[in-house]
């Protein structure tokens, strides 16, 4: 039962994840059904009644066929026979073959001395003309010497003068609904098939366990694709309360903020680092540098570094955002353009945030810069560490559902081979129903104490 519950929950998650696909498929099904109903309007039916003479009186018991008098049953067969339908073809509307006429005509018997000829048509005029043509052909046939059942004095009781059928709007709604239901079923099957074969990591715990590194923070990310979009992000990024808390937690774990809101580890004069961990990372005159590494296939994760830098500056930490050489230059082209351009006079960028882009050599830092965030992107298929500046720590940025465990492992191996220690993971755009934390428990170190003296065992020899 628990396994079934897990499967149901996973299936619901997959369908929620592909709700856009499902919506598109259902919309296409509804529009397709409505279009089919318009192009194929509903058929209407019209009926002509033919009166038969009274059957001959006999003293012998009459055996009925399905509750119908044998004479009437015979006339039903005659009315739908080949000679009757062939003779009716010239008057049938629209012109059709004998096979089509058989499909559109039904012969019945509402009473013992009446047979009905019901015809279908795309409109009332066609249905009425077809029903009357078959009824007239039947009367003409049984009244002639060509009749295979003898002469029958049949007469037209009621010609087909009206047609009935479903209203066009009702049929359109009905077919559209059926099309939507059918396409929804197809969409669900397709979404489940795609989702169950999708190996991309979506849960924080899955991402953390893939490389054994803790998730430091998870937050929504912006998706700018142009230089003006990146400029707006750097000048006017206002995270939500939840995102602010996640960014603050990441800075605290990196040693940049002391525990407690509004208490920066850096005191603003370029020389004091009250946080003990900051001294551990002190590799450049009290300056802490962080590399945010992401994959070229994950465009959303590229914004994690700029958002972290902008937030750090808002916390009164002099911060520099640096975009250096990249393995995939196209992935950061718009961001590099925004960083290379000088701020305009109307720029809203905080003076504590400085941005720079370089290709060779290095970049000059202001003496009071306390935090340097470097953005680097590697190829998802053939990762290789770009020749960017060295940093004190490295974090991997990844969006939920954007990378597989294999891709993250390759990125971690590339960074480790380049002598960069990965200290955490930043997750962008976490799923709303993700209840995991991404915390990887650190294994307890074995305690090495002095061995106890066991009773009854000689541990020394006296002479």
Main sheet makeup: 7 strands, parallel
End-to-end Cα distance, whole Å, is 72 Å
- Which descriptor suits the 3D outline? rod-shaped
The average pLDDT score comes to: 81
For the biggest β-sheet, the strand order reads: 5-11-10-6-9-7-8
Uncertain segments are 1-6, 259-284, 448-463
Domain tally: 3
Radius of gyration: 41 Å
- The CATH architecture assignment of the largest domain turns out to be 3-Layer(aba) Sandwich
CATH classification, class level of the largest domain: Alpha Beta
| CATH topology descriptor of the largest domain | Rossmann fold
SSE-based structural type: alpha/beta
Helical fraction equals 25-40%
Q: SSE string, helix = H, strand = E?
A: HHEHHHEEHEHHEHHHEHEHEEEHE
User: Number of DSSP strands?
Assistant: 11
Number of contiguous helices:
14
β-strand percent reads 15-25%
What's the gist of this structure?
By secondary structure, this protein is of the alpha/beta class.
Characterise the protein shown here:
With 463 residues, the chain is of the alpha/beta class. The chain has 14 helices and eleven strands. The protein is rod-shaped. It starts with a helix and ends in a 35-residue tail after the last strand.
Layout: helices, strands, pairs:
Blueprint: H1 2-17, H2 19-39, E1 44-51, H3 70-79, H4 82-88, H5 98-104, E2 105-111, E3 114-121, H6 124-142, E4 155-158, H7 168-196, H8 204-211, E5 215-219, H9 227-236, H10 241-253, H11 276-281, E6 288-295, H12 304-314, E7 319-323, H13 333-340, E8 353-357, E9 371-378, E10 393-399, H14 405-417, E11 422-428
Parallel strand pairs: 5-11, 6-9, 6-10, 7-8, 7-9, 10-11
Antiparallel strand pairs: 1-3, 1-4, 2-3
